[in-house]
Amino acid sequence: MGFGARFKVATRGQLRQMSTPPSGSSPEAIWQQFYDTQPATAGTTIQTFFAAPVADRTLTNMDTGGQLSDPQWLSIYNITLDFLTQNTIEDPLIDAAGELNDLNLLLKVSRPTWTLVISDKSYGPYSLTTLHGTGGPSGNIAVGGAAAAAGAQYANNMPTPGWDYKGSLIIPPKTSFRIVVNYGVPVAALDAVTVDMRISLFGILSRRVL
Fold this sequence. Notes:
Layout: H1 12-19, E1 28-41, E2 46-49, E3 73-84, E4 88-90, H2 99-109, E5 112-118, E6 121-127, E7 151-153, E8 163-171, E9 177-183, E10 194-207
């Protein structure tokens, strides 16, 4: 379906009714992504996400460590995992390492699991492979020459539908929560040395109307 193929025209009265809460205490509801980023390096055995805010808003958009501000409620739907990697160029005849191998080490070889904890109540553990990515670049690369064989590789976590709570779990305001990733064996040496991993919570955020 193309952009603009279907749309609905609302009257001014309908727009006013949809944008104005019926009472001063009624919240607005929006689709929201809360994300947090943690590094993985050789020897990593555990990571805790959403525990603390940082100044760099591209790494996390949490305003308060480990909880939502009052009055905010999040009905959780999707939980996703992205690997913030950088394209690498390798000689495929000499070195098979690279982004694809790094993701294989982080997702499968180290046997990682993730657990969602809300107010010290645990959901999980589940295998990390159940968390899929939000997307990534799509294209073609051709490199190399007569002097030396070379190949470029980039990798993303699968963007297909992954974990979905369908709104059945709710994080109330001022309630502690976190996602913990445990590795069955320490992470092996990575070609990128450090790989930033971003976990996102997607859902319906209910908040006050400003």
